[in-house]
Amino acid sequence: MDLEAELARMAGAYGGTGEPVTHPTRSDVVVVRRGEVVVKAHSVRDDPDLLRMRLRAANAPALTGLLLTSLDPEVRTVGDRAVTVWPTGVPVGRDDPDAAPWEEGARLLARLHAVPLTMMPPLPEAAGPARMARAVEAMPGHGAAQRTVRRAYAALPDPEPVPRLLTHGDWHLGQLVRRGDRWLLIDVDDLGTGDPAWDLARPAAWFAAGLLEPELWSRFLDSYLASGGPALDPADPWARLDLPARALTVQLAAVAIGHAEAEERELDEVEQSLIQSCGRIVGLRQG
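Structure for Aminoglycoside phosphotransferase domain-containing protein, as requested:
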């Protein structure tokens, strides 16, 4: 039995009904939905022991109403894959960014970052910075765009020590689902302790690259600050955001190049904007 069929069978064992649907995701992650049940085969890179720690945290009482709770508190195994089981939720629509729940995402992150670590089970380090390094290392080719991204990566300064807080590790709008009348965070793969400013870095990077409208960025940032989010100083949010935003720009650019190379196509306009932002990062360091 292949992996997708086994995940569909597992979904049925947890009450899922109807025809299974495989959802597109990262190439090494497989997500199968069957009715009200979602079964996720995690990346072969994911350490099952760290994933167990993260899953226990997702089910901790302190995160009730913030993070989607799994249907099974244990990490299961199918072949060489760690597998987790979840209830379904309605994802953010992709067709209308203006209507996306930017404010709700910001409020959820502010609440997540404010959860005392003393109320949580032991957690590993959040995986955001490591994700960036992996993206650059895996980037294929040696053309002009690749050289720009690698130079931008080399130009990033070492982060300054900051208080370690509870951090999602890979936040974007795709990490939200609606259950009933409530939005919840999903995806525990990178959950851990670290600098919470990294959770805000992707929209900050898109804004800095001119790919996110200033109004949408303001809605997100203002909601985070109004909710008491501890990652940023309201008087100078970019003091903490600048480095993570630059790092996410490098990551997104490296991933974009990888996709373009795999699909044997030229970089599109959005991807070119990310490369140009990397060029500005290099210029900042040289200046």
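The chain has a mean pLDDT of 93.
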